[in-house]
Amino acid sequence: LRLDEMTASTVLQSLKFPTTTHRSQEINEAHEKTFEWIFRDPEDGFRPWSNFVEWLQTDGQLYWINGRAGSGKSTLMRYIYENKITRHLTDWAGNAGREVPSFKWSYKSLEGSLKRIRIFALEDFKICFFIDGVDEYDGDYEALVEVFQELTKPPHVKMCISSRPWLVFTDTLKGYPGLRLQDLTSKDIRLYVYDKLEANSKMLQLSKSKPEAAAAFLREIVTEANGVFLWVGLIVRSLLSGLRNRDDISDLQQRLEELPSDSD
User: Fold this and answer.
1) pLDDT mean for each 10 residues of the chain (264 residues)
2) Do residues 190 and 226 lie in contact, with contact meaning Cβ atoms separated by under 8 Å?
3) 150: how many CB neighbours lie within 10 A of its CB?
């Protein structure tokens, strides 16, 4: 059986509010070719994260994306939502599938809506939530996670959430599938840094005149980032400004040293 249109509209309307799209409009788009690994199988013999596609395609509960401040959690969540999830979720939901737009809630409206949704959570109604920035909630985090855990007990309801790895989340979400983002983005950060800087004509000149120093400098940026995309964005903007001012490698190095690498 397929969820009838009237019931589906009732569910969606219960989640709406005037500033529905504000948060999604504030989130940066993923740089080209970054985060593609989320839809791939973890490397054989080395599983740094729980298989996300497998989680999308099967009955499950919570999937927790955690990472340091500035590591790109919201950008990853946006990338997931805007890319291949519909196909993978269809494998799980079958004829019960229906794409739902993104929303932003207060805790009270969220809790009330989720409780109403659970009334409809029958075997012919499968639903998967993607909730970003759980750590930005101003209230009892443990109580909020309990609401999520209670809602996702039935196999036909599941939820992907993101937050910083605070102890309250580490304790309450221990044992659930998930990933720690800053451990997985070094290749993405390298791609971003090299795309932005190596394409710069002044940087190309520096690379030709001082190849070893320029190469070492680019590697240092990736290392210093420590998985934090926010810091990388800030330093790349500063370096591009320096390149426009005809900075040498030593000047660029000084800019790098002036921006603390610990963004937490």
Assistant:
1) 52 56 50 81 72 89 93 91 79 66 59 65 72 90 91 87 96 94 89 90 93 93 90 93 94 90 53
2) no
3) 12
State residue 9 phi and psi, 5-degree precision. Answer: -65, -35
Whether 196 and 100 have beta carbons less than 8 Å apart is answered as no
The Cα 264–Cα 233 span in angstroms is: 15
Asked if 184 and 70 touch (Cβ cutoff 8 Å), the reply is: no
Concatenated DSSP letters for 40-63? Answer: SPPPTT--SS--HHHHHHS---EE
pTM of the model: 0.78
Total residue length of the chain: 264
162 forms bridges with which residues in the sheet? 65
SS3 157: strand
What's the angle, vertex CA 71, arms to CA 253 and CA 187, rounded to 5? 70
